[in-house]
Structures are given as structure tokens and as C-alpha cells.
Amino acid sequence: MIQKLMEDMSMLIEKKMDENAMDAAFENLGNLTVSQLDYLGVVRDGEKVTSSDIANALGYANSSVTVMIKRLIKMGLLIKSPSSEDKRISYIELTELGERVVRIQLDVFGEIACALEEELTREEQVVLDKLLRKGLNALK
Question: What pLDDT, on a 0 to 100 scale, did the predictor assign at position 21?
């Protein structure tokens, strides 16, 4: 039951992401994985983010993070810039396309949240919030 619900939610999010794709550069936006979106979110939320910062934030091995960063750079979503203070350090930043993807992601999740708020009573919202938080805690 829950697995089917998660699949349906995932499909809805992919559909909404694709609907919000504004040009050819976004045509595969819905194909981004949750993990890839998490990487973009960490970079967006940080300041002078390194691959180690991403690894620590997401709980992944540095080697896995390096591979994903290279993939996201190739997709045009991230860039790597050497530190001016220490050439051994590189900072990971969103490209313009990466920033647009993150904005679309936030818009889509905001749209879904608004739709749920309109559809659910206040009591149902409280129950849903409690259940989702419980589920998130179970995943940590």
C-alpha cells in the first residue's frame, strides 16, 4: 500500500517537473533522481560547498559523491571552482541551469503542498504532518 503511494507520488512529481520544464535544456528534468536533487539542494543551501560538505550532509562516501558531482557537472547543473586561498580545495556551485532546476523543484513541491492544504481539512493536515515526520524519522 505505502509502496504504491510512494510510486504514485514520485510519478506525480516527475510529471509536474516536466510540466514546468521551460525549454529543451529541461526536457529530462523529470528524470533527475531524488539523490541528484538532494545534491543540488545541499549546494544551494551552503556557502563555499566542497565535495566533503556534500558527503557529510548526505551521509555518502566521498568517492560516491565525486562520481555524482562529475555526472551533475556533465549535465550542466554544477561547476567546480578552485579556492583562491587553497588550490587543493574546490568549491561546488550551481550553474544557471542548476539554479533554475532548484527553483522549479521548489515551485513543484510548493504547488503540491498548496494542493494538499486546499484538499485536506486542518485535522487531516495535522495527521499527515505527524505521519510524514514519523516516516522521515524512521528513515534516518
Answer: 62
